[in-house]
Input
Amino acid sequence: MKRVLVMLGLIGLALGTTAFAANEGPGCGLGSQLFKGQSGLVPMSLAATTNATSWNQTFGMTSGTSGCKTDSVILNEKEQEAFVATTLSVLNQEMAQGQGQHITALASLLGCPATVHGDFARMSQDSYGTVFAQSDVQASVVLASLKDEMGRRPALASSCSRIS
Output
């Protein structure tokens, strides 16, 4: 049994050394929940190992479970930009039409409640010429333009929580 614990600890060190930055342990995830309140190398190594082997930490970071927070500005920005980059051609079409499931999904990623998704779709159509001013526009430029336009609309600026 001791051998198993030692091996798990060593694996945890190998897989989770970056998780120990600033003495905060393995962050969030199933491992941090199982070993909550414990300190020291062995519990933190086991927590990091659990997170690494169960692949639940990534899910927790995007879903807000297992002690993870979804309100990270950097995480939100990267998630939004990845979505826009992946769906850019479809967003181009849907924004021109002022409707579509990708526009609705983007509104959700920008923290807009369902009650203002229609306002977001109308704003995206109204600002289509500004947002897609160039034919080869980059996803980061589209996202920044949309956020600027949202900031000019009081209903969206006050309702959407992930535009800054």
Remarks:
- Residues 62 and 100 are 23 Å apart (CA to CA).
- Residues 12-23 have pLDDT under 50 and may be disordered.
